[in-house]
Design brief:
Length: about 190
């Protein structure tokens, strides 16, 4: 029997005008599609009208996003670093979607200046722990990202980044498979407080 694919949502972390996120996220999407164990969905907050105020009643666009995210088994966050943190749009998406992250793994692809976005990732690990998600240890990180890609979005040095991405995806798949099986035995929502 063929093994069912892990449904993974790749989420853009920047909606900034002229963002570099398109380049990094598109590269990450191509790498993920190469992995036979995943089926990929792309979530771009720039395309979704999430209300700025957290509301008691869910707006239709947010309800649709929550349904889509609730239906996947794993997440890949593509995040830049803004002022030693991660973009506000990402926090608002995480808070707004709230329960969808529970008992699922999150992998990171980060980029930025000298730090390669690792400070953004370390902060996101704290946030995802609070919403009962588990974060994958290995990450992909692009220091001075704009120097690493050419104008067509191709990396100058493919090997190192592809190796990092493969390792992250392998760990993400392991956790996603384990947690999917565990959720099928017992609903995590029953024990999440
Ligand atoms: C508001 C802002 C703050 C930034 N702060 C940092 C930072 O603290 N560390 C860093 O390495 N790069 C920083 N940068 C550089 C960004 O990581 C870089 O511009 C990246 O391309 C931003 O992602 P985006 O183009 O997809 O929005 C900052 C950029 C912006 C716009």
């Amino acid at each position: 029997m063929a093994t069912e694919k892990i449904r993974v949502a790749l989420i853009y972390g920047s909606t900034r005008e002229g963002r570099f996120c398109d380049t990094v996220a598109q590269w990450a999407a191509v790498q993920t599609k190469k992995h036979a164990g995943f089926s990929l969905q792309v979530i771009d907050p720039a395309d979704i009208d999430i209300p700025m105020r957290l509301q008691r009643n869910c707006a239709p666009e947010l309800a649709a996003l929550k349904t889509q995210l609730a239906d996947v088994d794993a997440f890949i966050i593509v995040t830049p670093e803004y002022n030693h943190g991660y973009p506000a749009v990402l926090k608002h998406l995480i808070d707004s979607a709230y329960g969808v992250w529970q008992a699922k793994p999150v992998g990171f692809v980060s980029y930025g200046g000298l730090s390669g976005g690792v400070r953004a990732v370390e902060q996101l690990r704290q946030v995802f722990a609070e919403v009962h998600a588990t974060t994958v240890r290995n990450t992909v990180s692009f220091m001075n990202a704009w120097e690493q890609f050419d104008r067509d979005g191709n990396l100058h040095d493919t090997d190192r980044a592809e190796q990092s991405m493969t390792m992250m995806l392998t760990q993400l798949h392991w956790w996603a498979t384990a947690l999917k099986q565990a959720r099928s035995v017992q609903s995590y929502a029953e024990i999440a407080t």
